[in-house]
UniProtKB/TrEMBL annotation:
Pfam families: Cu-oxidase_4
Entry annotated with the keyword Hydrolase: yes
Ranges annotated as biased composition (Low complexity): 50-64
Entries under Gene3D superfamilies matching the protein: CNF1/YfiH-like putative cysteine hydrolases
Designated name of the protein: Purine nucleoside phosphorylase
Lineage summary: Bacteria, Pseudomonadati, Pseudomonadota, Betaproteobacteria, Burkholderiales
Keyword Ion transport: no
Catalytic activity: inosine + phosphate = alpha-D-ribose 1-phosphate + hypoxanthine; adenosine + phosphate = alpha-D-ribose 1-phosphate + adenine; adenosine + H2O + H(+) = inosine + NH4(+); S-methyl-5'-thioadenosine + phosphate = 5-(methylsulfanyl)-alpha-D-ribose 1-phosphate + adenine
InterPro entries noted in UniProt: Cu_polyphenol_OxRdtase, Cu_polyphenol_OxRdtase_sf, Cytotoxic_necrot_fac-like_cat
Keywords: Hydrolase, Metal-binding, Transferase, Zinc
Length: 248
């Protein structure tokens, strides 16, 4: 937050030097659009067709940002270089690095078990309720590849820290009444503690992704390792990065 754009650019160059290639950064807007990184990535091409994957390498690294929300932070980075607008991306190209920036929202990595396609998604509660994970799964399967998918849900705000209003609970229960199991009464009246990773797992299971691993890390309670907008307000973002290795 409040970072110098020149320093952000320098840090990203240093990061890229450690990776197979420069990461594809997204202007995240808490929506459901999926960018096809192989179809003119950087020009904002949204995916309408794709395949599936598993041979992946994932890592987490700190990333600077300049705003009070993920969307604003990513928008500020567009002053450094144009970035496509979307909250998920897919690739079939080995070595093509996908990146998601978060500071409480869910970073979700998806891969097919035959190593053919990789997907990543940024899922705050709005995007999650709207179907960003389902959109990513659909994009990965749109080329009729039937290989099973697996998913990893990274560090995010945990179920003891995410207090929300009735509107958030209603948004999830409207589509899945059994999602009530992911909410328990909060301290304040008409407030709920929401299990965002648990809700994401339910969404993935309903989309046909049964192999789901949760990192178990809460960004709010682990101040030593993670940025948290809910905890700190003005803060940075960390990046979750993933790419296909090119071999199963």
């Amino acid at each position: 937050m409040g970072d110098d754009p020149a320093r952000v650019a320098e840090n990203r160059q240093l990061l890229a030097a450690l990776l197979p290639g420069a990461p594809l950064w997204l202007q995240q807007v808490h929506g459901t659009d999926v960018v096809d990184a192989d179809a003119g990535a950087g020009a904002g091409v949204r995916a309408t067709a794709t395949a599936t994957a598993t041979s992946t390498a994932t890592s987490t690294a700190t990333a600077d940002a300049d705003a009070r929300t993920d969307a604003a932070a990513d928008a500020s980075d567009s002053s450094i270089q144009p970035v496509p607008c979307g909250d998920a991306a897919i690739t079939r190209t080995p070595g093509k690095v996908l990146a998601i920036m978060t500071a409480d929202c869910l970073p979700v990595v998806l891969a097919a078990c035959d190593g053919s396609v990789l997907g990543m998604a940024h899922a705050g509660w709005r995007g999650l309720a709207a179907g960003v994970l389902e959109s990513t799964v659909k994009a990965m399967r749109s080329q009729h590849n039937e290989a099973p998918l697996r998913a990893w849900i990274g560090p995010a705000i945990g179920p003891t820290a995410f207090e929300v209003g009735e509107d958030v609970r209603t948004a999830f229960l409207a589509d899945d009444p059994d999602a009530a199991t992911c909410f328990r009464p909060g301290v304040a009246v008409h407030k709920w503690l929401a299990d965002l990773p648990g809700l994401a797992r339910r969404k993935l299971h309903r989309a046909g992704v049964q192999d789901v691993t949760l990192s178990g890390h809460c960004t709010v309670t682990d101040a030593e390792h993670f940025f948290s907008y809910r905890r700190d307000g003005q803060t940075g973002r960390f990046a979750t990065l993933a790419w296909l290795n090119g071999s199963n």
